[in-house]
Amino acid sequence: MNKNLGWKLALIIGTLLFFLFGIVGVPNNWSGHGLLAAIQQRIHLGLDLKGGTHLILQVQVNDAVKVDSDNAIERLKQDLRTHKINYTEITQPDPANNPDKIVLKGVPPESSSDLRSIVSERLPEYNLASGAENSWTISMKPQALAELKNRAVSQAIETIRNRIDQLGVTEPVIQEHGLGQYQILVQLPGVDDPARVKEIMQSTAMLEIRQALGGPYSSEQQALQEHNGVLPPDAVLMKGKSIGERDAETGGETWYLISRSSAVTGRDLRTAEAGRDENGQPDVRFTLTGEGGRRFYAFTSAHVGEDLAVVLDNKVQEKAVIKEPIRDTGVINGRFTEQQAKDLAMILRSGALPAGIKYLEERTVGPSLGTDSIRAGVRAAVVGMLAVLIFMLAYYRGAGINADVALILNLIILLGFLGFSGATLTLPGIAGVILTVGMGVDSNVLIFERIREELRNGKTPPSAVDQGFSHAWITIVDTHVTTIISAFILFIFGTGPVRGFAVTLTFGLLANLFTAVFVSRVIFDYVLSRKQRGEALSIG
Amino acid sequence: MEFFRNPNIDFLGKKWYFLAFSLVFSVAGVLSMLFWRGIPLGVDFRGGTLVYVKFSHPPDDNAVRAAMDRAGLHNARIQRYGPAANNEVLIDLALQETSEQALDQGKTKIINALESNAPPGKQDLNNASSLTITNYLLEKDPQHLGTDANQRYTAEAQAVVSYRDKTKGGVLGSFDELKGAVDPAVVASLREGFFLSDFGVRNVEIVGPQVGKQLQTQAELAVLYSLAGMLVYLWFRFEWIYGVAAVITVFHDTLITVGVFSLSNKPISLTVIAAILTLVGYSNNDTIVVFDRIRENIKLLRRERLADIVNRSINQTLSRTILTAGLTFLTVLALYLFGGEVLHGFSFALVIGILIGTYSSIAIAAPILVAYQDWRQGQGKKPTAMPVEPAKRERVKAKAKV
């Protein structure tokens, strides 16, 4: 038996060292400061403790679908023309909610087999269904639709990550959030005035260079009047707005007449940098890829002396005269501040978002609050812990030491778990640690009360200890499982701070199974092995 | 030390008192939820904007309200937050002022309204992040570092922010205070580009309507799933009636806790839901300990009436019940008293929950078992509150031999 005990003691000490390593690692120096720094490095604090911004973004995936179905319509129109199939109209009946749905009306019955082959060949991701009166409904296959939406989310995550990385935010969290709602969770530690970061993330950054056909006009009406109420077929009216003016939006609107098709887009960019023009005004210079450069050269050669427009997110950023053919470089002016020029260059470099994003939730914890929360949480934990430790000693005397050792070990294992797993410690997480102390000690109380009962019934100390543990064990398992079920459900449904609570509570209770049952038992066995037969057990 | 030695209290004999007590509290809570205060939802669930502002001096509520009125925020609720010495105010905007098109417009309006004394062209140092300060310093380069300034100025900016937030609690009173913390050239440069408002924003919570709804559904599902989880587990481990009794008990606890929140008009936030789920687990713990003993005693004392067995089991576990409840209550109380304002609702729910959870496993769960058995016997059927078959017990016991 003694040999067995040695093994168990070794196991306990090994576990203790292992989890201590989990908490502090191997600190550089053993002073108080060194240890604190080591702990801070191992145990990740949640945003609510270190301060920062938590955002939930909705990716408007229908934007991406709309782009795809717009393209599909263009391709379809072209193919119908080349195959000489007549139709009366082609529409998207519900662009806001079902942008993938296209309705084609008035196709003669004799062309239906041609139409079928066109759709199956040219639009393999779409289904074709016939409707009443020679109409057809073309909609995206559910699987392709789901894929397209998911791709939009992962592309958005990628783009946002690129942008945030360049802002110098340390350890940001950018991940999909929720269950298939196309939402993104962004956590930015240390950022407590998120306005600028939010703007940078949200900017779709769809850059296009198009031909400018007229403008500026002071209103839509004026633009229409100038063209006698009818716009040229391949032109649209676009609002002009410089992002350099966003603080002075009160100024009058401007409108431009812009061609529908673009010469080059943001995808053709190789790089973009902030610079300054000859007057020292900040601007953004970009370079095009080889293929983009060729197209840009062709476009500018064909339109020397005419105007081009730089369009950003469907707003005219600037209009300029094409003085000579340009190959692969360009400049965007727009009365920027230096910061804005830098931001725009960075956004352009990071690529466009595949779909617009909308902010759903924003929480900012200032670092002063985080500091206060840590202080309050630690104070509550120390007070609660001391109260329990002292009470157990007073109430159970010798066995109280046993419970206190188990309790402290329980805490060490819990914190070690946090260190190893990289889980985040939040303020409710600290509450979870405190609760673990309260609920964890329950196991000891259960066992000790049972031992006392068995002793009262006249059992010898060794057999009372044995009976106490084996009876209490069943109860302990049941109580732990039910609490862990609650915590598990919390983990699934909760976010951020609440999740941190679920994690510490679960880890704490798992560790408690080991400390309150196994460690306590070993201590009892050790105490009993050193006692004379028949000597009383110190259990209050 | 020992508080209880062989207690012998007839708990089941008092079941009508218990029932009356529980009914009074649940009915009061339900009435308040239905006709008086409703269920006071926190910003997580109802949506809206909360801005927690700390002033450098005791805030004048009327001045704050006037500033909000000037900004057009006529329905803003303004209340003092935390201990008076903290000089903190909570400004609460309803969902109408929180449109998803511009989620933070309410917050921006609040800050602009409070910054009404801002000199033109200067930024507010009390509400600037270290990123803003770093960028400013990089642009001005007060220490003439030229290249390689990035790291240096980042450190200076962090020193400013850390001094403001950790030493001064979030609000600087004057630029001179910074002199000990950072280089004088940096302070001089900051003085040119920044001003000091009399407040700092400590915490902002903005929840749009979509997320509010989503969280509400999730919270309801979480509570329902965890009740179902308990039911299934207890059914599997005991008899179905034990599961049903435990779930009714926990439902009773949840109802009373939410009722207390309604009666005292404290908002229910996400963390409060977390506390309620914890209390579901805790209350079940307590119930299971009594049930376990009942199961054990049924096996030992086959001849006795179930009511007597239940009474005896409650008495045998009473010492443990009171001790554990007391110790958990102690820790939760520490959390309530020292855990800070952020956890206030959470720890309040736990304080109430621990009291109710402990009471209910004695006063609600056990009587349900007996009442069910009486009813079965009235129907002339065999009692079913039987121990779990021996085979299952042996398995568990075998595992216990560590």
Please provide a written account of the structure.
The complex is a heterodimer of chains A (540) and B (402). By secondary structure, chain A is of the alpha+beta class. Chain A folds into three domains: 2-50 and 366-530, Multidrug efflux transporter AcrB transmembrane fold (Up-down Bundle), CATH 1.20.1640; 61-145, no CATH class; 203-360, 2-Layer Sandwich (Gyrase A, domain 2). In chain A, 54% of the residues lie in helices and 21% in strands. In chain A, strands 10-11-9-14-15 form a five-stranded antiparallel β-sheet. Chain A is elongated, with a radius of gyration of 35 Å. Chain A starts with a helix and ends in a 10-residue tail after the last helix. Residues 242-250 of chain A have low confidence and may be disordered. Chain B is built from 13 helices and six strands. In chain B, the strands form two sheets. In chain B, strands 2-3-1-6 form a four-stranded antiparallel β-sheet. In chain B, helix 8 (209-237) runs antiparallel to helix 9, helix 8 (209-237) runs parallel beside helix 10 (270-300) and helix 11 runs antiparallel to helix 12. The interface between A and B is large, with 99 and 96 residues.
Keywords:
heterodimer; A: 540 residues; alpha+beta; Multidrug efflux transporter AcrB transmembrane fold; Gyrase A, domain 2; 3 domains; five-stranded antiparallel beta sheet; four-stranded antiparallel beta sheet; 21% strand; elongated; B: 402 residues; 2 domains; two-stranded parallel sheet; 8% strand
Could you give a short description of this structure?
Chain A is α+β, with helices and mostly antiparallel strands and 540 residues long. Chain A has 15 helices and 18 strands. In chain A, a hairpin with a 5-residue loop joins β12 (269-276) and β13.
By CATH's scheme, which homologous superfamily of the largest domain in chain B applies?
Answer: Multidrug efflux transporter AcrB transmembrane domain
Which CATH architecture of the largest domain in chain B?
Up-down Bundle
Count of helical regions of chain B: 13
Radius of gyration of chain B, in angstroms, nearest whole number: 29 Å
